[in-house]
Amino acid sequence: MHKVAIFFAGTAWFEDIWALLLGILTLAVLAYGAILVPNFGSAFNLSQLAAGMVEKALLILPMVLLIIAREIDLSVASILALSSVIFGLLLKLGVPLLATLPLVVIFGAALGAINGALIVNLGLRTLVVTLGTMALYRGIGFIIVGTGSINVFPAADTDFGIGSAPGTRIPYIIPPFLILARGISVWGGKGRLTGVLLALVLVAAIRNILGISQIGGDTQGMVIGLLLIGSLLISNSTGFLVAWLRNIGALPKTNG
Predict the structure, then answer these.
(1) Which of 78, 56, 87, 58 is nearest to 154 (CA)?
(2) What is the C-alpha to C-alpha distance for residues 220 and 227, in angstroms, rounded to an integer?
(3) Do residues 198 and 60 touch, judged by C-beta distance below 8 A?
(4) Mind listing the pLDDT tens digit for each residue in 180-224?
(5) How far apart are CA 138 and CA 143, in angstroms?
(6) Cβ atoms < 10 Å from Cβ of 138
(7) How far apart are CA 125 and CA 36, in angstroms?
(8) Interacting residues of 4 by C-beta distance below 8 A, sequence separation 6+
(9) CA angle 28-29-30, nearest 5°?
(10) What is the mean pLDDT, run by run of 10 residues, along the chain of 256 residues?
C-alpha cells in the first residue's frame, strides 16, 4: 500500500485524481450522447454546443484567477445584465455598433473597478462586497428598463459573433476563447484550467442531451444541481483521503 501510494504521488495522476474522474465522466456522457441520442453527434449540434459552452467560458476565465487567489465575485451576472441594458440604450439612441461595443466594455470594467476599490481601499471581503453590488447593479438595470425591455436590434447587432468560420463548423467565438485561455498567468498562486474546461463541457453536454430528449429547463436545472452536489461530495472525499494519507506518511507532505 505504501509503495503504491508513493508511486502515484510521484506522478501527476494521484494529485489530479479529481480532474481524471471529471474527464472520465465527461467522456462517458459524450459517448452516451454520440451513440444513443439522435442528432447529438451532428456537426450542427456540436458547433452549437461548443458556441454555448465557450460563451460561458469567456465569463469564467477571470473567475478562475479569483478562485485561485481564494477570492470570489458574485456580481458577474449583474454586471453583464446592467452592461446589456446600457448596450441596448446606446443602440436605441442611435450610437453606432462599433462605438457602442468599446463603451459598454469600459462601462463593465468600471463596475468591476468599483468592486475592487471597495475591497482594496476599505479592506472588505470580496464575498460581502460582490453580494451587495450584485443586488445594486441588477436593481439599477431594473430601474432603467422598468417593466419593459429593449429587444429590437438591427441585424448587425443580433448576428454579431454568431456563425462559423468559412468552410467549417467552428463558431467565431472559439478562437478568442482559445487565445485568452492560453494569455492567463497567475502570480503568487497556482492552478490550471483543465478541471474548469472539463466541467463546462460536461454541463453543456448534459444540458444538450436533455434538451434533445425534450426534457424541460426545470428538470435540466435539477439534474445539474444534483451533479454539482455530487461533485462537491467527491471533491471533499478526495481531499480528506489525500490529507489522511499524508498524515499517516503514505504521501509526502507539501508546502502549499
Answers:
(1) 87
(2) 11
(3) no
(4) 665 644 444 455 667 777 888 888 898 889 888 888 878 888 888
(5) 9
(6) 18
(7) 47
(8) none
(9) 90
(10) 42 58 87 90 82 76 77 90 92 87 94 93 91 94 83 68 67 68 51 72 88 84 83 71 74 60
Q: What is the DSSP string of the chain?
A: -HHHHHHHHTSHHHHTHHHHHHHHHHHHHHHHHHHHSTTTTSHHHHHHHHHHHHHHHHHHHHHHHHHHTT---TTHHHHHHHHHHHHHHHHHTT--HHHHHHHHHHHHHHHHHHHHHHHHHH---HHHHHHHHHHHHHHHHHHHHTT-------HHHHTTT-SB-TTS--BTTHHHHHHHHTS---TT----SHHHHHHHHHHHHHHHHHHHTT--HHHHHHHHHHHHHHHHHHHHHHHHHHHHHHHTTSS-----
Residue 110 and residue 189: Cα distance in Å, rounded? 25
Tens of pLDDT, residue by residue over 124-148, are 899 899 999 999 999 999 998 887 7
Give yes or no for a contact between 218 and 212, defined as CB atoms under 8 angstroms apart.
no
The C-alpha cell that represents 106 in the structure block: 469600459
C-alpha cell at 53: 459552452
- What length is written for the chain? 256
